[in-house]
Amino acid sequence: MSVSIKSANEIELMREAGRLLELVHEELAKNIRPGISTWELDQLGEKKIRSFGCIPNFLNYNGYPASFCISVNDEVVHSIPNKHKILQEGDIVSIDAGLIYKGMHSDAARTYGVGKISPQAQKLIDVTRQSFFEGIKYAKAGNHLHDISNAIDDYVSQFGFGIVEELVGHGIGHALHEDPQIPNFRQRRKGIRLMPGMTLAVEPMINLGRPDVEWLDDDWTVVTEDGSLSAHYENTILITDGEPEILTLNR
Ligand code: MF3
Ligand code: CO
């Protein structure tokens, strides 16, 4: 495993890749409402990415046929946008997005409620988002990678939710997926030592019920085995000597 340290120039490009991606998320968030299809959201988002002169990095990734992953309710991640998948009041929807700016990648995911959602669903969304922030409290030079994993697990476990173990976060930069893998659950080993200039996509995926997931016949869509709701929150971050810089949240 080799974890790359980005140069000042690469970091500057990744900042811009991140800033633009957040604008894409803002555009999609404005359009989430009962009645819209996940395909329409994908089209809107792809237009926005291309308006920046950027490329959607998910499109054609291992044959993936769309620009976004838009996962509803018990879908955990990697659900393919579809004209017939219409958002309904009370649904929760996870939008995972990424783009390439001048050769550098960004990757970020958010989960939203559609109209009015149940208090349980809102709690799941809030805990998933907060678990990212609990994890990255440890994302600084000198700490170890699995300090992040352990902090996410400690936080989420208090609520009795299921942490997905079969999918993990990752390094990111010249490629969408680089070393290292970043688990969201407690690890026996410490993992690599974090160094300034590492860029990581930290992305907890949390189920209301059991942690187990399965793949649908399309070979992409990941769903919870017990049919419970699932939420996802992800940002691309930069490791520094101090606080991590979150590249996909606009400052
Ligand atoms: N953000 C997703 C991940 O890190 C990327 C999905 S690639 C796709 O797993 F091809 F599935 F869209
Ligand atoms: Co990712």
- How would you write the strand order of the largest sheet? 8-7-9-14-15
How many beta strands in the DSSP annotation? Answer: 15
**Elements, N to C (H/E):** HHEEEEEHHEEEEEEEEEE
Percent strand: 15-25%
Provide the helix percentage: 25-40%
Number of helices: 4
Could you say which structural class the secondary elements and strand pairing correspond to? alpha+beta
Which regions contain 5 or more consecutive residues with pLDDT less than 50? none
Please tell me what the overall shape is: globular
What binds here, in terms of ligands, is: 2-amino-4-trifluoromethylsulfanyl-butyric acid, cobalt (II) ion
Rg calc: 17 Å
The residue-averaged pLDDT reads 98
Taking the alpha carbons of the first and last residues, their distance comes to: 32 Å
- Summarize the biggest pleated sheet: 5 strands, antiparallel
Pfam families: Peptidase_M24
Cofactor: Co(2+); Zn(2+); Mn(2+); Fe(2+)
GO molecular function, one term: metal ion binding
Organism: Candidatus Limivivens intestinipullorum
